[in-house]
Design a protein that fits this description.
This protein is 23% helix and 23% strand. By secondary structure, the chain is α+β, with helices and mostly antiparallel strands. The protein is built from 6 helices and 13 strands. The strands form 4 sheets. Strands 1-12-2-8-9 form a 5-stranded mixed β-sheet. It has one domain: 60s Ribosomal Protein L30, Chain: A (2-Layer Sandwich).
């Protein structure tokens, strides 16, 4: 598998044209590629930006953007106020995904409908470059409980089946697998986010080639097959012990 970060010009908040940036930065596209685009530049494209100076209380903005949330005011060992922990689009993420880095004085919100955005990017790429089989992922940086550092997650996708199902197949010793499924969307997003970086690299797009064993399809996956009910989640005891609040 080959992961290549794509250098672009900066996309400037509060609004800029992502599609023209794709045209300027990608010159050819190999069949069966996966194009990963950071959620931040998608949000700038959609003008999902609010000037920091116009927001009196970030906590209120987080609660407005979150589906459900837990308010937190404790200081971490780094001296910073710990952010509100939220669930948005069935993803556990701090501050509803709102970001200030590389934002030029704005709060950058998540795309309003990330799956619709992924499909729009897919349709543009298909028209612009003409590939028959390819996929799109909208990614974001993500943290894991009890782990230091940032990895990547796919907040939406289009053009491929995001799961590889091993259930009822046998492992190397003949034991039948009961639950194992590979989350392809998040796995590829993690590789792309690593390559794109988190600072001033100016590479908000990555192209993944030769990922292998991807089922490409233009099917709209609804409901999202990556979503799992809290009742079935292995972390259910933790999730259910929290006093979640809705907006």
């Amino acid at each position: 598998m080959l992961v290549k970060a794509v250098k672009t010009r900066p996309l400037i908040p509060p609004q800029d044209d992502l599609l023209s940036v794709i045209s300027e930065s990608i010159f050819e596209l190999k069949e069966k590629s996966i194009i990963v685009v950071t959620s931040k530049v998608v949000s700038i494209w959609e003008s999902r930006c609010i000037k920091i100076s116009e927001v009196k209380n970030k906590e209120d903005l987080v609660r407005q953007e979150a589906d459900i949330y837990i308010g937190r005011n404790e200081k971490s060992s780094y001296g910073a106020i710990m952010p509100t922990l939220t669930i948005k689009n069935n993803i556990l993420i701090p501050t509803a995904g709102i970001d200030e880095s590389n934002a030029d004085g704005y709060y950058i919100l998540w795309p309003k409908d990330p799956f619709a955005s992924a499909k729009k990017i897919y349709e543009f790429i298909k028209k612009q470059y003409g590939p028959k089989e390819f996929g799109v992922i909208i990614s974001d940086s993500h943290t894991a409980p009890l782990r230091t550092g940032i990895t990547g997650i796919g907040i939406s996708f289009f053009g491929f089946n995001p799961l590889r199902d091993y259930r009822n197949k046998k492992d190397i010793f003949g034991r039948k697998l009961k639950m194992s499924q590979t989350n392809i969307a998040d796995s590829l997003a993690a590789a792309a986010v690593y390559e794109m970086g988190e600072g001033a690299e100016q590479t908000p797009i990555a192209i993944i080639e030769d990922a292998g064993d991807i089922e490409f399809t233009e099917k709209d996956f609804s409901p999202n097959p990556l979503v799992i009910s809290p009742d079935d989640d292995i972390y259910a005891p933790i999730l259910k012990s929290v006093n979640w609040q809705s907006k």
